[in-house]
Structures are given as C-alpha cells and as structure tokens.
C-alpha cells in the first residue's frame, strides 16, 4: 500500500472515531433529557397525590402544574433539538464511513494492480530466460 493511501485511511479513521465519540456524547445527552422528562412526570404525579391528601397543597397544585408544564416543554424542546443533532451526527458518520471505504477500496485496488504488474514483469523475465536457453 502506498504512503498516500495509508495517510488518507489514517485520516479517515480519525474522522470516523471523532464522529463516533460525538454521536456517543449526543446519545448520552439525549438519555439524560429523557430521564429528566421522566423525573418531571414522576414529580408531577407525586404532587397530584399529595394534593389529594392535603387541601392546602391542593390549592397550590394549579400553580405548580403551570411551572411544571413550562419545565416539561423546555425539556421536550431540548429533546427535539437533540434528536435533530443526533440525526445530523449519524448522517455525518455514515458519510465518513463511506469515504473511509472508498479510500480502502482505492488502496486495495492499487495494491492489487501493483501485484499484477510485478507478476507480469516476473513472467516476462522467465519467458525471456526460457527463450535464451532455447536459443543456446
């Protein structure tokens, strides 16, 4: 394999690894956002249960739920942004893999072409040696 092909493959591998790390980080942030939404839902259910048992808490439930709705809307908005970011990262990773495979294919084709050329020269040398022996 030629030096230029090795360099291109090494650079492409680095890009793929970088994009994989980015995708993992986005996936982790997405999981945290989903957990945050689940926690908000659990807290709201807890407040509803408490409001059923305590009249004073029941009077404040409406104000709590208004704040809860805005916090949940923000968390869901963050999740939507993360979904779009994850889709973009996956597309970039797919493109990087395609580029890596192209470079690997070109490198392999170049290597095989070189092997064929070497085999042809070797065959020509043996043919010439055979012709010389026949002539003598």
Automatic annotation (TrEMBL):
The keyword Coiled coil applies. Keywords: Cell projection, Cilium, Coiled coil, Flagellum. Residues 16-43 form a coiled coil. This is Flagellar export protein FliJ.
């Amino acid at each position: 394999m030629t030096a230029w092909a090795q360099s291109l493959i090494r650079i492409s591998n680095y890009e793929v690894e970088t994009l994989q790390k980015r995708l993992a980080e986005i996936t982790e942030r997405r999981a945290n956002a989903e957990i945050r939404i689940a926690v908000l839902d659990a807290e709201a259910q807890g407040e509803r249960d408490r409001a059923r048992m305590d009249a004073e808490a029941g009077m404040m439930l409406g104000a709590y739920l208004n704040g809860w709705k805005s916090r949940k809307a923000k968390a869901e908005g963050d999740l939507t942004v993360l979904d779009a970011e994850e889709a973009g990262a996956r597309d970039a990773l797919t493109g990087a893999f395609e580029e890596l495979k192209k470079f690997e294919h070109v490198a392999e084709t170049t290597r095989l072409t070189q092997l064929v050329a070497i085999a042809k020269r070797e065959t020509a040398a043996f043919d010439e040696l055979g012709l010389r022996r026949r002539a003598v």
